[in-house]
Amino acid sequence: MKGFAMLGIGKTGWIEKPEPKCGPLDAIVKPIAVSPCTSDVHTVWEGAIGERSDMILGHEAVGEVVEVGSLVKDFKPGDRVIIPAITPDWGALASQGGYSMHSNGMLAGWKFSNFKDGVFSELFHVNEADANMALLPDDIDAAAAVMLSDMVPTGFHGVELADVQFGDDVCVIGIGPVGLMAVAGAALKGASNLYAVGSRKICTEVAREYGATDIINYREGSIVEQIMEKTHGKGVDRVIIAGGNVDTFIEAVTMLKPGGKIGNVNYLGSGDYVKIPRAEWGCGMGHKIIAGGLMPGGRLRMEKLASLIQTGRLDTSKMLTHKFNGFEHMEESLLLMKDKPRDLIKPVVMI
After folding, report:
1. Is 32 within 8 Å of 80 (Cβ atoms)?
2. Which residue segment(s) compose the domain that 341 sits in?
3. What is the distance between the alpha carbons of residues 87 and 108, in angstroms, rounded to a whole number?
4. Strand blocks (E) in 11-139
5. Please, which residues have CB within 8 angstroms of residue 280's CB and are 6 or more apart in sequence?
6. 187 in the same domain as 84
7. Rounded to two decimals, what is the model's pTM?
8. From CA 256, how far away is CA 134, in angstroms rounded?
9. Which of 43, 144, 222, 234 could form a disulfide with 317 if both were Cys (CB 3.0 to 4.6 A apart)?
10. Angle, alpha carbons 245-112-173 (nearest 5°)
């Protein structure tokens, strides 16, 4: 079969591989719609998870089931399904402990384009199909549904990690697609003043549509100073980090009130250490909590998030700025995520 792969650090291309084999609990799926992610960029061009050779990329897809294993009960060939980016081993002790995304090792629930071939191929393998796939409802567009694989659950997990409460003042740092979903999630959770940090016009416009009350443009000065001015020197109750780098934590900690929480869902692709400012962190005693986490995966999560689209609570189509038809556009769409032109939020490839 044909797939678009990481050939090595800094190198991508098309390769041929044998078709994946289906285990008794598993499924083989052909993609209907896929989308590249900034994580793919970190993996290929920064070598964030180390050397990978001839590994098919991609972890965001909806598809059609081609084959199921003998023990799969709830899916059959021909079903259209949503596949989360994180497909845990649900029998692992970490899963039983509530951290399925770390089943059998830290971040090991992230399999696609990490430990095994991803979804940018003619066929791909899904482990534990009954637990890791969800039926795609007929009334949800496949392109919009791809955002349920990663962008929505990752952005929403930032909201969960920051523990946003009704009436909280919240700052979302970075309003690419994950940050935009953090804005949408924080609004759904009851944030009052909702500050979105970004500069690209298309992203700031969509952030306001998702519920941002204020835009903080980092090109116009220190984001900390802008937040402090808007909050009359008090800072915010919660910060969600969905962009930036290891230095971004300095700003997040500084703008956070004592007793506040930071939820990080940004994939830190480079840098040896995360930087936490000593004094602004209360010399280690400021009760400024930092939580970073990989999104939860699994079927139930996908079904619940899909219901938000069905009921009109969430419209992911606002993020789909570039739409391609045909498998041959995979490289073009990935390079868009690498180069990030100012009119881009998220590309999708229909197959």
Report:
1. yes
2. 2-150+295-350
3. 9
4. 11-16, 27-34, 55-56, 61-68, 80-83, 124-126, 134-135
5. 250, 253, 254, 286
6. no
7. 0.96
8. 37
9. 144
10. 25
The rounded distance, in Å, linking the Cα atoms of 98 and 160 is 14
Q: In whole angstroms, what is the distance from residue 230 CA to residue 228 CA?
A: 5
Tell me the per-residue pLDDT of 232-256, one tens digit each, with 9 for 90 and over: 999 999 999 999 999 999 999 999 9
SS3 210: helix
Do 178 and 271 lie in a common domain?
yes
192 with 268, same domain? yes
List pLDDT tens digits, range 128-158.
Answer: 999 999 999 999 999 999 999 999 999 999 9
Please tell me the distance from the alpha carbon of residue 210 to that of residue 319, in angstroms, as a whole number. Answer: 11
Q: Which of 4, 330, 39 is nearest to 178 (CA)?
A: 39
Q: Quick one: which of 209, 205, 217, 263 has its CA closest to 236?
A: 263
8 A C-beta contact, residue 164 and residue 191:
yes
Contacts of 267 (CB under 8 A, 6+ apart): 38, 39, 42, 48
**Pairing status of strand 61-68 against strand 320-325:** unpaired
- Return the number of other C-beta atoms located less than 10 Å from residue 348's C-beta: 26
Q: How far apart are CA 276 and CA 201, in angstroms?
A: 30
Q: Token pair for residue 76?
A: 């059959």
User: How, if at all, do strands 256-264 and 236-241 pair?
Assistant: parallel
**Structure-block tokens of residue 319:** 């993020």
Strand order from edge to edge, sheet including 11-16: 11-16, 2-8, 55-56
Q: Are strands 289-292 and 256-264 parallel, antiparallel or unpaired?
A: parallel
Tokens of 251: 């700003």
What is the rounded distance in angstroms from the CA atom of residue 266 to the CA atom of residue 335? 20
Residues 93 and 163 in one domain: no
Tokens of 68: 């199921």
